[in-house]
Amino acid sequence: MFCVSEQGSLTIVRRSSTKKSQNHTDTVAGYSSSFADDETLDAVDLDTDNLPAVDTPDACDKAAVRLRCLLRQLQRGEISAELLQKNLHYAARVLEAVFIDETKRLADDDDELSEVQPDAVPPEVREWLASTFTRQLATTRRKSDEKPKFRSVAHAIRAGIFVDRIYRRVSNTALMQFPSDVVRVLKTLDEWSFDVFALNDAASSQPVKYLGYDLLNRYGMIHKFKVPPVTLETFLSRVEEGYCRHKNPYHNNLHAADVAQTVHYMLCQTGLMNWLTDLEIFATLVAAIIHDYEHTGTTNNFHVMSGTETALLYNDRAVLENHHISASFRVMKDDECNILQNLSREEFREFRTLVIDMVLATDMSFHFQQLKNMKNLLTLAEPSVDKSKALSLVLHCCDISHPAKRWDLHHRWTMLLLEEFFRQGDKERELGLPFSPLCDRKNTLVAESQIG
């Protein structure tokens, strides 16, 4: 399902396939069933244009049903910010009409959750608000992350007011601010031939920072894995700096942003994301963002032939790819950049394994073997595709996808890549090494090099 956020951009929403998420959904469904069955809640129209006046008896019932529907959809991540705010505003107005004396007192309270008096909302509501909207740990830990069950409709409506207040505070201050020109370009993020060069201009040469943040937010990864927004921003800025370190014409931050956007297109437009768990999507997006981190602008073969320290460190095997992974995880070990700080030990191991598999598979020397393996799988009567291998192939294809995009984009990428090849050729000439293919700027015929 897709929702449109306040800024008009597409928000990705999906049902998690993990057992934990299923348990959460069951809890919310259990709460709702005492008032309305699941089908009834799913059929609720959350449009706010034709609602009864807030001071009528029907309004309280409408608000109660809508809050139960909102809680259900919030649990699934299937609600846009605009609809959430409109419905919470309506519920707040209903509560003001029914409990006028109480809401006058609440209106004077500070929006901060820490200032809410213990008896203002039930304990289970307070814990849910803390864990969902503030990045703070609940005062009392629940077993297996169980979501609270509200004791009454009044409690749910009262919770709605605090959700509305805290949501406004979080959305206005916690998340990174996007320049208007960046927002305009990102509205085309779901297109195959997304213009990352236009994003680079709008983002003051920081495409990874804004595109990476937007993607992780759209897929709900920031909320799902409790990634502190400031930490994510710092991590993406550090990654961007690493991509720019060697001033490469091609393997730079624009390429990283372009590949990450293409991976998003494949996840979203093909329905691939519905086959994956939240953690697998998180790993896939991060792998795309860091897959060429600190690229030197030279090939693996150059490192091997010239005997660089990197080649010695990784024993001539997938030299650059090993470095991209190792250096990226070193960045994430820094507390200021640790976007994985709230993953469990098991989640971290799975995440790291997936990222390693995917980035190593971008080594072009594995290209034909990957194609052969996938073709062989598809010839089987009942093919069983390993997720890691499938995602590795997806990232690899996205990494070399620009020939399939709009001509002007492909041509620009091609000329940048050739210039990078030529710079390597210049280094090879200085070192007395033979020219690698397409690296001799004086003798390479550009047109004939394009065999596609």
What does this structure look like?
By secondary structure, the protein is mostly helical. It has two domains: 2-173, no CATH class; 180-446, Catalytic domain of cyclic nucleotide phosphodiesterase 4b2b (Orthogonal Bundle), CATH 1.10.1300.10. The chain is built from 22 helices and two strands. The chain has helices at residues 19-32, 38-42, 57-76, 81-98, 100-107, 123-133, 153-173, 180-186, 196-202, 207-218, 221-224, 229-244, 253-269, 278-290, 300-306, 309-313, 319-333, 345-360, 367-378, 387-399, 407-431, 446-449; strands spanning 2-4, 10-12. It has a two-stranded antiparallel ribbon with strand order 1-2. Strand 1 and strand 2 (10-12) form a beta hairpin. Helix 3 (57-76) packs antiparallel against helix 4 (81-98). The longest helix has 25 residues, at 407-431. It is elongated and about 85 Å long.
List the helices and strands and how they pair.
Elements: E1 2-4, E2 10-12, H1 19-32, H2 38-42, H3 57-76, H4 81-98, H5 100-107, H6 123-133, H7 153-173, H8 180-186, H9 196-202, H10 207-218, H11 221-224, H12 229-244, H13 253-269, H14 278-290, H15 300-306, H16 309-313, H17 319-333, H18 345-360, H19 367-378, H20 387-399, H21 407-431, H22 446-449
Helix pairs in contact: 1-3, 3-4, 3-7, 4-5, 4-7, 6-7, 10-12, 10-13, 10-14, 13-14, 13-20, 14-18, 17-18, 18-20, 19-20
